[in-house]
User: Fold these one by one.
Assistant:
Number 1:
Amino acid sequence: MTAPNNFKAKIKRTITSVLPVAKNRTGHCSNCGQCCYLPKKCLFLKIKGAKNYCSIYKIRPLNCRKYPRTEAECLTPNTCSFHFKKE
């Protein structure tokens, strides 16, 4: 079951972003930019050629820094380069 992609879910991700990232998360950001469309395109997402980047990367909010914090929160499994090892 996939987590919902709406503003209520985004608020929940923002509130829970103070919690630690799951220990079984591996990988790194590949700049796919898909998380920047959850649920609507972020104002700070910039596109240069085929590459996406954050115009406020150094000061981006915790919910951006930690996405996906848990496997259940991952709404972009087909493009996100973060993965969760089975424990």
Number 2:
Amino acid sequence: MDTKKRILDEALTLFSEKGYANVFVGDIADRVGIKAPSLYKHYKNKRAIFDAIIDEMNQRFAEQAKSMNINGTDAQKDSEIYKNMSEEKLLALGRQFFLYYLHDDYNKRFRKMLTIEQFNSKDLADIYSKLYVDDPLAYQSMLLGMVAQAGMLHTDNVNIMTLHFYAPIYFLLTMCDRDPEREPEALKTLDEHIKQFNRLYGRTK
């Protein structure tokens, strides 16, 4: 691992252990095994490191989505895939995404840090909401809305339908963050949730 990657990795570990506000550039440099002036050759300040961690997470997500043969951010493209997906494949896709978010080391540590810091920093609370609430809801609302327009889902309120889909998944994710031993239970519940969602909204595929 090169020095820039090591800086991100060690910084993320420190942020998840101590909280973003309680970590200083010198702490990160010490953990990496370099002097602070050397760290500044790679990142101009702590916020630049934080932003680079988000960029790294986005890149990891894009690679994961590609491996699953979806876009992950373009709802229009993914709606065409969803329309032609069997329930069996949809269940497998749901599990893959859930396990990715649960076990991807970057996501796991970053989510832990934001869970702590959301009560101390409005800026980090806003980032938490964007990454784990607003962006997923916006993407899924657009995707499910286009599937509904095609007549494969039936609802009078796409936003509420999206909440019905996403909120239980987010709940199960945070439950497993707190209690990893409940993962098998969560996966079983996830499967039943997706099946019931399809029944409730009349998915025809």
Number 3:
Amino acid sequence: MHISPDNIIYWQHGIFVLNGTIVFTWLIMAVMAAGSWLLTRQLSPGGAVSRRQSILEAVVATIERQLKDVTHVQPRGFLPFLGTLFLFIAVSNTLSVVPGFHAPTGSLSTTTALALLVFLAVPIYGIARAGFSTYLSNYFKPSFFMLPFNIMGELSRTLALAVRLFGNVMSGNMIGAILLLIAPLFLPILMQLLGLLTGFVQAYIFAILAAVYIGAAMEIQSTPTKRHKETR
């Protein structure tokens, strides 16, 4: 059993490699695109709405309220970004119970890429809210000498996001492989069910931490007047 999809090579020519991480990532993208199309193809902007649309709107509204409680800013601008991250991780971890499927989140390259997206999104949303010079000035607070430490803080939390997700998924795969070798059939099945719950928890933690980082970059720049208007 492969612990990481990076070790599954489907095609290679020189420096170009098509491994399991790329293939399974494309598969998840196709599943998410098809699912999004099926769920949203008959949405109505007003008037009578279907039960499916009512459920979708309730779910989105609940997530939006929770993000607002966590970040203390209006999350509508970054809700699609965080929602996509959460769904990708959750779908990836859920499909890991399918025989032959290897979650791309079990690859450090995938989790690093996701963490880098958050790393780039934080200053983008912060600059969009406060402006370029105002946002950059935070790296010099409380004094100019804090600049390298603030930069190290940004990099370290990005590394922590990547390693946390990778470590949890990889350890789950490793435990499942060991149990499959030394234990009866039913114990690995129970571990796979537990892995589903853990996968959703990891997706939730990743999205919430990303929301906290983005919210902090946006809220810390707000003047008291702006903050008052945002929370009303």
